[in-house]
User: What shape does this take?
Amino acid sequence: MSPSRSRICQGCWQHMRMPIPIRGALSWPVRLLGVRISRMHPNLCTICETMFTRVKRRKQILVPATVLFADLRDFTTLSQCTESSEVLGVLDGFADECAAAVWERDGIVNKFIGDSMLAVFNFPILRHDHVEQAVLAAQDIQRRWAERRRTLSGRGLVSPGLGVGIHTGVASIGEIGTAYKDFTIIGPVVNMAARLQAAAGAGEILTSTDVYERVAAAFPHCEPRESRLKGIDGPVTVHPLVP
Ligand SMILES: [Zn+2]
Assistant: This one.
């Protein structure tokens, strides 16, 4: 399932009230100016990725956001003893399933780094329910991946598990670099989401208490546990959610 494709860029409309056509007959003059559909979401344009210095007049802005990391378990070890075409096939599937689940819920895929994905909810497409949307996306990612794993193992191919971590809070979003500009998100929210993901087992979604409190009604049987997360002092209460 892919998100409904809009004719104008949702980010430019929400942040600047500018109707930038990205599909249909009106989009060609914009394309001639070099504006393209963003790789991060099919309803955003490349202006959204560079709006910081031009529109917001700052390289970084603080935004309430939910950050989701998904990562294939033990993939580095697996890829060392597996045919490269098979490895690429697994990564293609991982990217496709993750992107579809995130886009459907108005999140952006900020980066794929090998066997790992960083997704952000509530920027540039604003959603007051961004925490809930991120959790729904995580469940969808696990469901989709479980299905794909069954197909892969049925064909005798490697089928690594997948772990997800989610945290929410105020993050710094903007551009890094001057010659080579990169749209990025940084801050403790990102670090915590990455640590939760690293602590998640295959098939698991681990969230922070801040995330869990927003979705608790949907997960009454969640059993929180204390976990030591790399780089964070003291135990942290983590909440495993059933996909
Ligand atoms: Zn845009």
Summary: Strands lie at 60-72, 108-113, 116-121, 162-176, 182-186, 205-207, 225-228, 235-241. Residues 173 and 180 are 16 Å apart (CA to CA). The first helix runs from residue 10 to 16.
